[in-house]
Amino acid sequence: MPIPQQVPGVDRSLLRDDVFRRLRDAIVDGTFEPGEQLRDAELAEWLGVSRTPVREALLRLGASGLVIAKPGRSTTVSTIDAKAVRDARDVVAAMHLLAVQGAAVDDAGIERMRDANRRFADALDAGDIPAAMDADEAFHRIPVAALGNTAIESVLDQFGPVVRRAERVRFIEHGRESLERHERLIALLAAGDTAGASNLTFDTWHTLVVDDGVPG
Fold first, then answer.
1. Phi, psi at residue 37, to the nearest 5°?
2. Which has the closest alpha carbon to 40: 80, 73, 79, 83?
3. Which of 132, 159, 186, 194 could form a disulfide with 88 if both were Cys (CB 3.0 to 4.6 A apart)?
């Protein structure tokens, strides 16, 4: 897939994290496909920045397993590797479980979860998978933010995108199941049922079953 021509660049004053997020999201949402070669000069022109933050972002993406860099040769988008996704899923599940067990989600947080789930439902109705993924991410991050554990947030930033690539396939066919689980989690948290919410959280993340073929 060629570098998009109509996407506006980021402001030159934005931090390296913004470049990283733009490239990460382009991989997760399929703009850049598995096996596609990424050239830092082309990416820098697309984003309207120098090559330095792009190179730094590619290094970070390599640490997350989203790209494969061959020194002196090329950087390509990685394929969706079943074992890598399973490993990342288990780590992500553990982090969200810790958040649900330890966080006290107040009434305002519960309402934000309801709002995120409404946006998730609207995106599914519209067939807008990228918007559904954004809403799902926002939904699950609310208990994480309520806990305020920056170590958990850092781990999710690193391994979450690996899981999201596989979830994109699932949301296309099974998004309604996630919607129902969201509703149940909201109800459990609103009732103060930490044990029930914890069990549901563990089960939710492990519904992402990945074999050596296509994630399901």
1. -80, 135
2. 73
3. 159
**Tell me: the pLDDT tens digits for 89-108?**
999 999 999 999 999 899 99
At residue 69, φ and ψ (nearest 5 deg) are -105, 130
What token pair was written down for 100?
Answer: 């649900």
Residue 207 binned pLDDT confidence (cut-offs 50, 70, 90): confident
Rg (CA), the chain: 18
Helix (H) or strand (E) holding 69: strand 67-70
What's the pLDDT score for residue 13?
43
Using alpha carbons, select from 205, 164, 156, 155 the residue that is nearest to residue 185.
205
* Residue 211 identity (one-letter amino acid): D
Distance CA 189, CA 180 (A): 14
Query: To which H or E segment does residue 23 belong?
Result: helix 16-28
Q: Mapping DSSP to helix (H, G, I), strand (E, B) and coil, where does residue 37 land?
A: strand
The domains located in the chain, with CATH, are 16-77 (1.10.10.10), 82-205 (1.20.120.530)
pTM comes to 0.82
81 exposure class (CB count in 10 Å sphere: 0-12, 13-18, 19+): middle
C-alpha distances (whole Å) from 58 to each of 22, 129, 134 are: 11, 25, 22
In angstroms, the Cα distances linking 108 to 87, 111, 132 are 33, 5, 22
